[in-house]
């Protein structure tokens, strides 16, 4: 098995990435909270599926988003196409012009900007009826405040790990480590931090790779906790 790690910008890979993410996050607390059974519409069972794929397509072509995939030429999906074994989505740093207090493009696309128009979208895709939009907006607000505390205002440049997923059939092979390490290496080259909001399942991975816990966000109603983590190469030198 020869795995390659590539940056991709091909929207046709979105369905394979969605399948990998869906398999990776079975019984995930955040997923269950954002898409509760009470909002599921039996007359439109594929609503979440369409939303996720459309959001992935938008992310794949976003100029400041780096979608890194793990693929193997010998491993195909059920249709004989490219199977994404795992992926990470890194957002590159943007430095605002002096005196510019307007939201940056990366802030808008990552969901940091909280206004009436953007609050109904994620990655430029309208939020579906099967999503708990009020919870989504509350999470965005908490993450926005955490980012301000973490990076200051205006925010200092940083690499941001938006998402990470590995197909369970290919776990234990170091794919997640390399998908995260890709962004860490860029942050070290740029001499700037990298940060992530971690699920409980990924905490040990990020700690092993040099991230430190900054804070735990208030738990969701189902007890799920997101943890803000930072890897700052400059602090390691001091």
From TrEMBL:
Stored InterPro entries: Acyl_CoA_acyltransferase, GNAT_dom, Trichothecene_AcTrans
Biased composition (Acidic residues): 106-120
Transferase is among the record's keywords: yes
MF GO annotations: acyltransferase activity, transferring groups other than amino-acyl groups
Domain N-acetyltransferase: 89-232
Short name of any one Pfam family annotated for the protein: Acetyltransf_1
Region: Disordered, residue numbers: 93-124
Domain of life of the native organism: Eukaryota
UniProtKB keywords: Acyltransferase, Transferase
Segment forming the signal sequence: none
PANTHER family listed in its UniProt record: GNAT FAMILY ACETYLTRANSFERASE (PTHR42791), N-ACETYLTRANSFERASE DOMAIN-CONTAINING PROTEIN (PTHR42791:SF2)
Name of the protein this chain belongs to: Acyl-CoA N-acyltransferase
Source organism of this protein record: Lophiotrema nucula
